Amino acid sequence: MQSFMLSHNSVIKSVFLFVCCFAYSVYSFETNAQVIRVGLIDYPPHINFDEDLSKSPLYQYINTTLLPLGFTLKYVKLPRERASIELFKGRVDVLMPIPLENETMKTLSLPIFHSVPGLCFKKENFIPILSAIHRLDNLTIGVPASSKIVAGLTASKANLLQIKGENATNRGLEMTQRGWLDAFYHPSPIKVYHRKNPAYKELACSYFHGFATPVYIGISPKLPEKTFNLINATYQKAITKQSYEYYFASRE
Amino acid sequence: MKLLKIKQSIQRKIVFIAIFFSLVSFQLSADNIQMKKNINDITKIYMSSMTYIFKSQSIINQKNVDKSSLFGDAFIENIKQTYSVKYNEDFPKADHLAKKMLLQVMVEVMDDNKELIHDNEIGFKGVIPATYASQLSAKLATKGIGLTIKFTRTEKGIRNILNKPDAWESAVMEKMKTTPDIYYDENALLNGKAAIRQFTPLPMAPLCLGCHGVPGQNPLNVGKDKSQWTTIDITGFEMENWTIDDFGGGVSISIEKSVLQ
After folding, report:
1. In this structure, is residue B87 part of a structural domain?
2. Do residue B236 and residue A245 have CB atoms under 8 angstroms apart?
3. Parallel, antiparallel, or unpaired for β A203-207 and A118-122?
4. Which terminus in chain A has less CB density within 10 A, N or C?
5. A82 touches chain B (CB under 8 A)
């Protein structure tokens, strides 16, 4: 009887030990497998590094979309110049948002939103409708050297002044604000022309509607295909149900 | 006896084939009516939204006023009310992807203009029916749902080259000179894909002539001596000197058949 009790206890102990080891190994495997590192690029008002991340609408949308998949999402803020390198090296799995104007990259299948280029003016010189291209005649308009310019602007008789260097956009805006340029071509003026931006209070921007560039969510080439497919399918479902652009437009 | 049986069998087959074809043609006709209804609804929703933008010019351009009626659900509610008054019928249900998407895109377009509309240091914002319609078309084109809407006119009178008519629209407008009725084409092509297209002519309205009419109708010239009148309208374009009897252009809507089905 006693030997039966001993053997019974040892069986229970063994089973308990086995369950603990199994649970731990499953837990640690799952935990490692489910970490998705999401790189973020400052792109106000969609991702705004100047405020709490939880207030950025693109963060909210993607977080809500991906959380039900059971991943642990780790967000990393990255400077634009380094972000693509981090993605290619696999140090982040996902990177957003990425306008694919000048580069090729693996992305989720649908764009998350579209950026529309435009011109920023000093408010007293504001031109609201850019299809009236004759109004740009003889204006001196700064253009970042790395940007692709829309046909509406190249067809005008404006004097286009190329601004070179890494910080061309900020310098161009400064020059416009100081009155050294009549206007500045911005690939996505929404990034600067918004109420939360204190830097360019004297500027207002109008848009070249009809010349939108799709902005995507980049995916690391090192992310396993199975994980990519899962994320992509979930993302497509979410976009079909309610697009990010509509989510953004209808927020309070 | 055998001959009679064969005759009866043939008769039964003929009856069966006749019933089958009437059912199929009934279904096709029902589909066609539904497609026409959808495309008509879209045209009227689109035109109601343009009317509402026109009516809202003072709210859009004024400083320090409540502008919440121009955004989100409130904007759609106002379009619904405008629709009911304009067409004396209930606003259609958003029971089709194209209608649902159109309403969403309207909200998105107004949100794109939100910063500008709220900018108290800018007077005229440039959000007028024509530019709103053009933004709506551009935005819809990015959605990839096979629905295109264009507010267009004969090539000679086009201000924005992106609204230039295509060959189908030019041909239809040519016909409109003699018969200015809604033109419906259920066997059209759009970008090489089977599509249904409709062109609804718009009569020139007094509201159009503030920009497209003669300098005397230009709001910028009100209260000024004739010698000081400008021929440039508020949007920056040369006025065309059109009259109320001129062709006002129209709304061209195309939906790929794959979307409608």
Report:
1. yes
2. no
3. antiparallel
4. C
5. no
Q: How far is CA A75 from CA A24, A41, A64, A90, in A?
A: 26, 11, 14, 14
The answer to whether B122 contacts A131, with C-beta atoms less than 8 Å apart, is: no
Amino acid B84: pLDDT: 97
Chain A residues in contact with B162 by the CB 8 A cut-off are 131, 209-210
> B97 to chain A: nearest residue by CA?
A240
Res A17: pLDDT = 62
Residue A62 C-beta-side C-alpha neighbours within 13 Å: 31
Q: Tell me the per-residue pLDDT of B76-134, one tens digit each, with 9 for 90 and over.
A: 999 999 999 999 999 999 988 899 999 999 999 999 999 999 999 999 999 999 999 99
Q: How many residues does chain A have?
A: 252
Residue B239 lies in a domain: no
A46 vs A59, A110, B110, CA distance in Å? 8, 17, 17
Q: State the complex-level ipTM.
A: 0.83
Which pair of tokens denotes residue A212? 């939108």
Domain hosting residue B67, numbered range: 11-204+246-260
Q: Would an 8 Å CB–CB cutoff place A214 in contact with chain B?
A: yes
H/E stretch holding B174: helix B167-176
CATH 3.30.1360.120 given to domain A31-114+214-249: no
Q: Report CA B89 to chain centroid distance, whole Å.
A: 18
**B-chain residues within 8 Å CB-CB of A116?**
112
Contacts 24+ apart (CB under 8 A), A173-176: A173/A120, A173/A199, A173/A200, A173/A203, A175/A142, A176/A120, A176/A121, A176/A122, A176/A142, A176/A203
Between CA B51 and CA B60, with CA B57 as vertex, the angle to 5 degrees is 120
Regarding the domain delimited by A117-207, which CATH topology (the fold level of the hierarchy) does it fall under?
Answer: D-Maltodextrin-Binding Protein; domain 2 (3.40.190)
Name, in order, each residue with C-beta under 8 angstroms of B195's C-beta and a sequence gap of 6 or more: B146, B188, B189, B254, B255, B256, B257
Mean pLDDT computed over every residue of chain B: 89
Return the pLDDT at A189: 94
A129 interfaces chain B, CB cutoff of 8 Å: yes
CB atoms within 10 A of CB B192: 6
Point out the residue among A129, A245, A250 whose CB comes nearest to the CB of B72: A250
Give percent helix, percent strand, percent coil of chain A, each to the nearest 5. Answer: 40, 25, 35
Cα–Cα dist A204/A194, whole Å: 9
Residues in chain B: 261
Q: How confident is the model at residue A244 (pLDDT cuts 50, 70, 90)?
A: very high
Number of structural domains, chain B?
Answer: 1
Residue B198 lies in a domain: yes
Is there a domain that residue B28 lies in? yes
* Segments of chain A assigned to CATH 3.40.190.10: 31-114+214-249, 117-207
